[in-house]
């Protein structure tokens, strides 16, 4: 583990009876990195995060968090880490400001720091609002503010954007970008692949307790070598003519569109331009979701 490593997880295992929740997971997170753990339900993401945070003891394996072992419960680490769990619990009847002041009091945080956190998460105008009257997105932002109020070096976020509407999710993205811009290390789990692709420096894709792939999102997508899909409106081009175009590997047509799959899009697009069929054309390349589905499968997970 180097001095620039914020978190090192080495061959951790955790079972609940016959269920292997975490089965030999290893990874490192650099200081200042935004690291995502992705996976379907039951993949072992939350258990891995709880072990890394020092909330749970693994059956075997080691964790070094900011150079120290988080388990047994390491009180010296607590001021250096921030944790936002899947289910947030607040003190009843307190306003947004009072919630932050109460959390901050545990670490000797000043009122100025509380004001700074309210501004960071966009809740300055809701400071006097009881927590119970905040919207779901506002409560999530308040939860993150509570995890950050003592200015930790590393922040753990477990599905921070779950159940938020698209606007609230995007607002929270801005908050998370600002947190990283302040030099903080972020380790988080999410089900939203588009989110991870935008926010994360690297991701680990987990399933059945194991890491299946780990790299920068763009590199994972590139290594998939998936075909590019060129989509035309139905009737823009006859299927037989589309199959004869240079670079056309597969052609499929439904009631709405004609889709041409290709691994050499440049000559295909040039040929489509010659046929005057570029109006309304869509080009879709592979995404992190394609990588995820390729690795974990498409079956339904309860």
Explain this structure.
The protein is α/β, with parallel strands linked by helices. It has 2 domains: 5-222, Rossmann fold; 227-285, Alpha-Beta Plaits (2-Layer Sandwich), CATH 3.30.70. The chain is built from 10 helices and 13 strands. The chain has helices at 45-53, 96-105, 111-120, 136-148, 166-181, 193-199, 217-224, 239-243, 265-274, 288-296; strands at residues 5-16, 19-30, 34-38, 60-65, 81-84, 154-158, 185-190, 202-207, 210-215, 228-233, 250-253, 257-262, 282-284. The protein has a 6-stranded mixed beta sheet, with helices on both faces. It has a 4-stranded antiparallel beta sheet with strand order 11-12-10-13. The chain has a 3-stranded antiparallel beta sheet with strand order 2-1-4, with helices on one face. Strand 11 and strand 12 (257-262) form a beta hairpin. The longest helix is centred in the middle third of the chain and has 16 residues, at 166-181.
Keywords:
302 residues, alpha/beta, Rossmann fold, Alpha-Beta Plaits, 6-stranded mixed beta sheet, 4-stranded antiparallel beta sheet, 13 strands, globular
Write a short abstract of this structure.
It is found in: Cell membrane. The protein has about 300 residues and is of the alpha/beta class. The chain has helices at about 45-55, 95-105, 110-120, 135-150, 165-180, 195-200, 215-225, 240-245, 265-275, 290-295; strands at about 5-15, 20-30, 35-40, 60-65, 80-85, 155-160, 185-190, 200-205, 210-215, 230-235, 250-255, 255-260, 280-285.
